[in-house]
Amino acid sequence: MKVVFVLFDSLNRHMLGPYGGTRIPTPNFDRLAKRSVTFDRHYVGSLPCMPARRDMLTGRLSFLHRSWGPMEPYDNSFPELLAKAGVYSHLVTDHFHYWEDGGATYHNRYDSYDFVRGQEGDPWKAMVQPHWERLREKYHERQFSTQRRNYQAQNIKNREFIKEEEDFPSVQVFKAGMEFLEQNRDADNWIVQIETFDPHEPFHAPERFKDQFKTDWTGPIRDWPRYGRVDELPEECEELRANYYATVALCDSLLGKLLDDFDKHDIWKDTALVVTTDHGFLLGEHDFWAKNRMNMYEEIVHIPLFIHDPRRSDLAGARSDNLTQTTDLAPTFLDFFGVEAPDEMIAPSLFASLERPTREGVIFGYFGGAVNVTDGKHSYHRYPADLIRQEINQYTLMPTHIFSFFTPEELSNASLSAPFEFTKGVPLLKVPVIERTPMNQHYGPGAMIENDTRLYDLVSDPGQDHPLRDESVEAAMTELMLGLMRDNDAPPEAFTRLELQSPEKQTSEG
Question: Cα–Cα distance between 54 and 354 in angstroms, integer?
Fold first, then answer.
C-alpha cells in the first residue's frame, strides 16, 4: 500500500465545487470527487492549527486538556506506529508552526521531512534594515509593522523574495511532493504528507490567479484580514475576499498537478489519496473575519474530506453522510496498512464509518472556550457563565505556548496530576491558567468576542442566523455532549465550568 495525504490549511468546504461552491472554479477538486468518497459531514476536533494536527496524529481530542502545544511523550502518532510496522513516512510542508516552540515535536515523528520556507511569519529572510518607508507605501496599514519578531513584519521581508510563481512556498511543496513520488514510485509501504499553509492568510497568490477575481480596489496590498469583527468598507472587504479566492484557485491548480501525476502513471490502482484541511475561515459571514474570536460556526468547523482507496474502485464518486472528524485520520492511516490502533486511539477508522454510522455526535472546540457538539442536525455551543473567572488547567509535560515557554508565573502554582486514561500511567503537570498567560491574546478565553451559549437547527437554519430555543433539544444535545466528554476523559473542572455533572458527582448520587 502507498498513501498520499494532502493537507491544506483554512480551506473552506462550502467554496469547493463538490460541496456546491460556485464562486471559485475548482475543476480539480471536482476531478478528485469523481475518483473518491466525498464526506459530507466531516468536522474539526481541536483548534486551531497545531491542536488540529495533534488530533490528526494521535487519533484523539486534545482541547479539553491542553491548548496549542507540542506532541507529548505519552502521545501515539500514526507515523511512529507505521514505522514499527515497516512503513516509511515522509513530510513535505511549508507550515512553519512545526518549527516553533509549540510545534517542535511533530515533524520528528516522521522518517524524513522537507521544510519549504517563506510562509506568513516564518523567520526566513534576515533583513536587518529593510527599506521600511518604501514598504509602508506598498502595504495596507493594518498589515504593516516594523516590529521585530512580528509576523506581519517578517511576512513583508519574506515577500521581497517571492516574485515568480515558482518562488511561492505552496508551489515548492507540491513540487517536492511529486519528486518524492517520482523517486519512490517503485517502492511499497510508504505514506507521504504533502502539506501547505495555503490558503491560510495572508492570501498571497501569483497574479494569474488574482486576475480571475479583479475588484475595484486601488489601495495598497490588502490580503491579510485581522481576527475579529468586520469594520472595513465594502470595497476593502471585496479585495480581502478576492485574494482568498485567488489562493484557493492556486490550491486547486496545485492539486490538479498531483492528479495529473496520478493519471500519467496510473497510480490510482495502487496508491490511496486523502485530501482535507484543518479548519475553515470566516470571510465576513456572521460579521466576522477568521477564527479564534467567535462562536464555532459551520464555516469554521464543517470541513472537506476526500478519500480515494485503490482497493475500493466501486466507491469512486460516492458520498458519505455519516459523522466523521479529524481524529479519524490516524486510525484510517493505520487501517490502510493493516496496523492495529492502540487503545488510547479512541477515534474510529473512516473505513468503519463507510460500513455503518460510528457516531451519534462529535464534540469540538478551542481550549478554554465553549464545548461544542453536533449530531449533524443541530449544533450546540455551551460556554461557561463567566469565560474569564473559572478554574481551567493545562495538563502537559511539554509546557510551551506557540513561541514561548510557559512563564515562571504560570508554572509557580503547578502541581502533579494523576494520570489520565490516555497517558499510559504517566502523571502530568497541572498548570492553572492565569489571565496573563501568553495564550489569552491569541486563542484563549481572553481572545473571545462571542461567549454566549447557543443552539442552532442546521436543517432549517444552515446559515446559523437564528439561535433556537428548545429545551428538549438542548437537553438531548447536553446529554450527547456529556457522554462524549466522558469518553474523552475530560478533567473534572471541564464539567464544573459548564455547570454539568462530572462523572464523580453522577456516581456519588446514584
Answer: 24
Contact 370, 296 (CB under 8 A): yes
- List average pLDDT for each run of 10 residues in the chain, which is 510 residues long: 98 98 97 98 97 98 97 98 98 97 96 98 96 96 96 98 98 98 97 98 98 96 97 97 98 98 97 98 98 97 98 95 97 98 96 90 96 98 90 96 95 97 98 88 83 97 97 98 97 95 49
The terminus-to-terminus CA distance of the chain in angstroms comes to 50
Encode pLDDT of 90-143 as tens digits. 999 999 999 999 999 999 999 999 999 999 999 999 999 999 999 999 999 999
**What grid cell was written down for 325?**
472528524
Distance between CA atoms of 369 and 366, rounded to whole angstroms? 5
Amino acid 393 reads N
pLDDT digits (tens, 9 = 90+) for 386-398: 888 889 999 999 9
Q: Which helix (H) or strand (E) holds 476?
A: helix 471-487
Where along the chain do its domains lie?
Answer: 2-124+169-359, 125-160, 363-508
218-222: long-range contacts (C-beta < 8 A, 24 or more apart)?
219/140, 220/137, 220/138, 220/139, 220/140, 221/138, 221/139, 221/140, 221/143, 222/140, 222/142, 222/143
DSSP per-residue codes, 247-309:
HHHHHHHHHHHHHHHHHHHTGGGTEEEEEEES---EESGGGEEESSSS---HHHHB--EEEE-
CB-based contacts of 209, cutoff 8 Å, min separation 6: 246, 247, 249, 250, 253
Nearest to 58 by CA among 278, 402, 344, 348: 344
Q: Look-up: residue for cell 443552539?
A: 455
Q: How far apart are the C-alpha atoms of 317 and 30, rounded to whole Å?
A: 10
Contact (CB, 8 A) for 212 and 245: yes
Residue 424 in grid coordinates: 499510559
Cα angle, residue 402 at apex, residues 396 and 406 outer, rounded to 5°: 50
Dihedral angle at the C-alpha atoms of 288, 291, 293, 296, nearest 10 degrees? 90
Considering the segment(s) 2-124+169-359 as one domain, its CATH architecture is: 3-Layer(aba) Sandwich (3.40)
- pTM (two decimals): 0.96
Query: C-alpha cell of 491?
Result: 478533567
Residue 306 neighbours by CB distance under 10 Å = 21
Cα distance between residue 25 and residue 361, in whole Å: 32
